[in-house]
Amino acid sequence: MEIPTRLVLAPMAGVSVQAFRRQGRRFGAGLVCSEMVSCAGIEHRNERTLGYLRVASDEHPLAIQIFGHEPRAMAEAAQLVVAAGADLVDINFGCPVRKVTKTGAGATLLEDPDRACRIVEAVASAVDVPVSVKMRRGLRDGSRACLDVGPRLVAAGAASLTLHPRSAEQMYTGTADHALTAELVSLVDVPVVASGDITSRKQACAILERTGAAAVMVGRGVQGNPWVLAEILGEATEEPSREEVVAELVLFLRETVRELGERRAHGFLKKFYGWYLGRGRFPRPFKQELVQLETTGEVERRLIAAAPGALPLIEELEAELPVGDSVLLELPVSIYGGG
Ligand SMILES: Cc1cc2nc3c(=O)[nH]c(=O)nc-3n(C[C@H](O)[C@H](O)[C@H](O)COP(=O)(O)O)c2cc1C
Q1: Is residue 69 within 8 Å of 100, Cβ to Cβ?
Q2: What is the b/e burial string over 136-146, where b = at least 16 CB atoms within 10 angstroms of the residue's CB?
Q3: How far apart are CA 254 and CA 267, in angstroms?
Q4: DSSP state, 31?
Q5: Nearest CA to ligand 1 atom 7
């Protein structure tokens, strides 16, 4: 599998909707990833879970990430996500959230390496696309479990590893210790992706050099700021204009409404207003005003009123979207209506 740049867009639950992934590809991410999708949800054909498996033709290469703790169910889930259009199946051994870890999934598996290996083996033998694993350093602060588990996961069939070198206990506090990433690189002969605290070209280059990683993954830095992807690739240095910011936000809003339906999108989008309009781009009260509006249509009108020059840019962006989108799975009809 060929990934065109050494820059990967991080999977983020509650963020990595289709619009986010397509935008990430457009700004230069070589690989984009769905948010983690529950293997139990897939097994029970939960409608909202299946909605995460909606794949567009301009997202590839695309990884779909699954989480669970049961090898057979994970293998079946992997087959379904490949049928949905995933070019790569990513397995989540990093999620620190209690709701996930208490089921024996996510970061917990770093302390149960035998089971983790059985999951990777089952998934890798069930699909004919590459299988990768994303993990944290371990459960507890100071843990080095990733260095023990990582090589075993490769032996079990992982074609690539992504390391976010914080412990699960740390959540997002402290800093990512990329000395561990360098150690992991020296222990395995598959590509390692470095994730954590990368928000600029300078940091990205330093981490690639220091660790020998094959690529960097960027998450929080891209929230409301897809321009950082171009900056990391050395393709842009200037801050976007207000018109560009509004154009990207309006397109994002429209696409998210198409994907989730007005009711879900309305609440989902609120956090994005602050992310896009902050960074000194618009005065703070403007965001407050947007989050209080009742429909996304009103938000769109208010945004365009604040930067009318965005309109032609929005038209250009809309015109670039693929026609007759490819959704490969036979999913319940209500999903397409934003169910
Ligand atoms: C809101 C949010 C949701 C996340 N969801 C996931 C997820 O679903 N799967 C996963 O493997 N990592 C998830 N992560 C972790 C990120 O992929 C990434 O490893 C981490 O944020 C560190 O990178 P950053 O400093 O560039 O944000 C999430 C992070 C955030 C902030």
Answers
A1: no
A2: bbbbeeebebb
A3: 14
A4: B
A5: 12
Task: For the chain, 339 residues long, give each residue's pLDDT as a single digit of tens.
Answer: 899 999 999 999 999 999 999 999 999 999 999 999 999 999 999 999 999 999 999 999 999 999 999 999 999 999 999 999 999 999 999 999 999 999 999 999 999 999 999 999 999 999 999 999 999 999 999 999 999 999 999 999 999 999 999 999 999 999 999 999 999 999 999 999 999 999 999 999 999 999 999 999 999 999 999 999 999 999 988 899 999 999 999 999 999 999 999 999 999 999 999 999 999 999 999 999 999 999 999 999 999 999 999 999 999 999 998 876 655 455 554 444 343
What is the rounded distance in angstroms from the CA atom of residue 216 to the CA atom of residue 162?
9
Token couple for 326: 């490819």
User: 95 catalytic, yes or no?
Assistant: yes
| Residue of the CA atom closest to atom 10 of ligand 1 | 11
Catalytic choice (33, 39, 95, 146): 95
Taking a C-beta distance cutoff of 8 angstroms, is the pair 128, 87 a contact? no
Q: Which two tokens stand for residue 189?
A: 């002969």
Pick the residue whose CA is nearest to atom 2 on ligand 1: 12
71-to-75, 124, 131, 188 alpha-carbon distances in Å = 6, 11, 14, 23
133 CA from centroid of ligand 1 (Å)? 14
- Residue ranges with strand state E in 22-99: 32-33, 37-38, 62-67, 88-93
Residue 302 alpha carbon to ligand 1 centre in Å: 31
197 C-alpha to ligand 1 centroid (Å): 10
- Region for 141 from its dihedrals, namely left if φ exceeds 0, alpha if ψ lies in -120 to 50, beta otherwise: beta
Atom of ligand 1 nearest to the CA of 162: 19
